[in-house]
Amino acid sequence: MTSVSIGSKPKPTKDFTSLKEIVNTLEPTLRDKVMLADKMLTRGVVQALKHQPFFSTGMYGMPIIIALVGTGCTDGKRQWYDPNFVVKLSDGQTVFLLTHEVMHKYSFHHTRRGKRDPKLWNMAGDYVINLQIYDAMKEEIARRGRSCIEMIPNILLDERFRNMSTEQVYKILEQEQPVTPTNPDDGTDIGNGDCEGDGDGHNGGQ
Predict the structure, then answer these.
(1) What is the tens place of the pLDDT at every residue in 36-51?
(2) Which uninterrupted H or E stretch holds 202?
(3) pTM of the complete model
(4) N or C terminus of the chain: which is more exposed, having fewer CB within 10 Å?
(5) Starting at the edge strand that comes first in sequence, how are the strands of the sheet with 64-66 ordered?
């Protein structure tokens, strides 16, 4: 599973249960967040369809599940988003989150990791993906004066990794920081680097 990671703090256990399926049993505050997040994510897909069709094609191929996963994540077949995280985003940041997870799918990060450290592999993938999304955002601005994508603050974005593969970035990160064993199922991927599809690619603390 690939995810958007936001930091190095210990993360609570993720619950992949679809909250929409049990929405009537939730306490009011969480229920409201689930409904709002659902509307925001749907709106994000529509915006991508209008202005970033390359990404939106992949969005339609993966069911969106709202669950308590911390940020966002994907296994290449489904995508999970935490309502507590989504409701804090702007419309453009929501589109970024959706495109980020789709790029993990497009990049086959969930099948290419092999025996590599999951957290470091996700970080490497986030660096590569976020540069690609940044370029798509700049291209859209040049084309129509603005973009439906807004980068989430503190994502993993570094020009030194431009035109590198995820494997190449991983080797560099492996040399620069010690690897501590992580749970292969710990997927947070907002672009910060935890596992394929778990968030948005952040540097900050989750």
Answers:
(1) 999 999 999 999 999 9
(2) none
(3) 0.83
(4) C
(5) 2-3, 72-74, 79-81, 64-66
